[in-house]
Amino acid sequence: MSYSSDDYNAAVEMIRSRTKAQPTIGLVLGSGLGTLADTLEARDVIPYSDIPGWPRSTVHGHSGQLVIGELEGQTVVAQQGRAHFYEGYTPQQVTFPIRVMYKLGARSVILTNAAGGLNPAYKVGDLMLLNDHINFVGMSGNNPLMGPNDDSFGPRFLGMSQTYDRELRQQALHVADDAGVTLHEGVYVCLSGPTFETPAEVRMLRTLGADAVGMSTVHEVLVARHAGMRVMACSGITNVAIDQIDTTQDANHEEVLDAGKVLVPRLTAVLRGILRSWQA
Ligand code: HPA
Fold this sequence. Notes:
Elements lengths: L4 H12 L8 E5 L11 E7 L17 E7 L2 E7 L10 H14 L3 E10 L9 E9 H4 L26 H14 L3 E8 L8 H9 L4 E3 L3 H9 L3 E11 L12 H24 L4
Parallel strand pairs: 1-4, 1-5, 5-9, 6-7, 7-8
Antiparallel strand pairs: 2-3, 3-4, 5-8, 6-9
Bound molecules: hypoxanthine.
């Protein structure tokens, strides 16, 4: 299924009827990371269920509302929770909110997610800035830009070698350094989920050069870049991916949400620092 400009405009008009703010930066807050949106000043809150066409997350840890307000002097539109491919949404549905944020005036987007650490140096509670990705979901025929190209957003064929904005990454590294927060840079691999990886898959992903694994973000990144938006994305490492069979541990959603509590203040420090020194 593909959306028409009427679909995007209906969502934009509804949001504009509920806020006077004119956001220039989008924020997508992943599993267990949504509480940052509660700290926006002068905020307007719109439940996703009020916005026509907006996909709703069914997952615990995703609250499902759009929060528009001020953070460190910037007007931002924040998604407190997102919809995922594994919930049964198409890649086009998952990325509908990105195009709506673009049409609202956002020309940059900062995405966050919970991810499993593949790189042996990564510990629970660390942050990883994405500097590249491997899109298994896209490679298996589920790329949100498939289907008729909407030329009003961007080109049919999109180069992917300048995806994660270099200046924003440099700025993030400076900010994290100043705040004493561990911020790695690495490659995120996107799988569909909802199952976590088998140990054999973990070892394979490592061999392929991935540093962290998750079930989101990349679809949104593609659609944002298609529209020419500046993109920064950051994973919170919520668990270390298990690479051996027959251990007593197994990955689970509770540990993902628990780690979110440690990660939120670290992520908040980095995001606030970036917004404070933001140059559009
Ligand atoms: N694998 C995939 N997605 C995830 C993980 C993981 O280990 N942790 C959080 N999201």
